[in-house]
Amino acid sequence: MTTDPLLLMGEVDAATSRLLRTAASFDTADLAAASLLPGWTRGHVLAHVARNADGFVNLLTAARTGAALPMYASLDARTADIEAGSSRPPAAHLDDLRRTADLFSEAVAAMPADAWAATVQARKGPWPAALLVWGRLREIEVHHLDLAADYRAADWSETFAHRLLREAASHHGMGPTPPSMVLRLDGSDHEVVIGERVNAPIVAGPAPDLAAWLIGRANGAPLSVTPDGPLPTPPEWI
């Protein structure tokens, strides 16, 4: 998948359209149903996706203007905003998702070329502005899964799944106690190694299923392990 933020906007727009179609299918009872995230309803997930767009607009503005603008006013404010928006009626969720998606697109379009070289202060620390569009795409695609609706990792593009898989593997590999495993993609000789290769189990399967399992969004049922045994337990993902 390209790292060019402007080229990635086509993927963001397509992912947003898919998410909006799913959100448009929800009635009030659907929104109150549990998501895949502990303690969050589907309404919480949709409110988070909208507020995340606001946060990314802040970061794009910081990159463009040089202002010390954080992603969120505070973690408490972020939590309160998500909670406050979670129980809105379906039409209000849709309006908010569309409005904030448009604001994100406008903020990307306003970026001069040199602003993409900036570093901004994301929720968990400094982050290259050039990765903000990828970050937004990742949020939309992963949280679409979290809605526990008719959307699966298999619906991700192969390029998105490959990039997410590599990112998650890199994250886990840099942890204090990285698990040792070899991830082998079906239909390919390509492997991703986490930790030590020697005596590490080989976990094989389609890239989307491997990626979803590695970030804790799937139980790994379609995956195989060599030698036979239980799947390793990936560390918590960001």
Cα distance spanning the termini: 21 Å
State the domain count.
2
Count of strand segments: 6
Cα gyration radius (Å): 18 Å
Q: Examine the coordinates and then state which fold CATH places here, giving the name of the CATH topology of the largest domain.
A: Four Helix Bundle (Hemerythrin (Met), subunit A)
The CATH architecture of the largest domain can be given as Up-down Bundle
Strand order of the largest sheet: 4-3-5-6
Oligomer: single chain
Series of secondary-structure elements, N-terminal to C-terminal = HHHHHEEHHEEEHE
Helix content: 40-55%
By CATH's scheme, which homologous superfamily of the largest domain applies?
A: dinb family like domain
Largest sheet: number of strands, sense, barrel closure: 4 strands, mixed
Q: Mean pLDDT, as a whole number?
A: 94
CATH class of the largest domain: Mainly Alpha
Strand content: 5-15%
Structural class category: alpha+beta
Uncertain runs are: none
Number of helices: 8
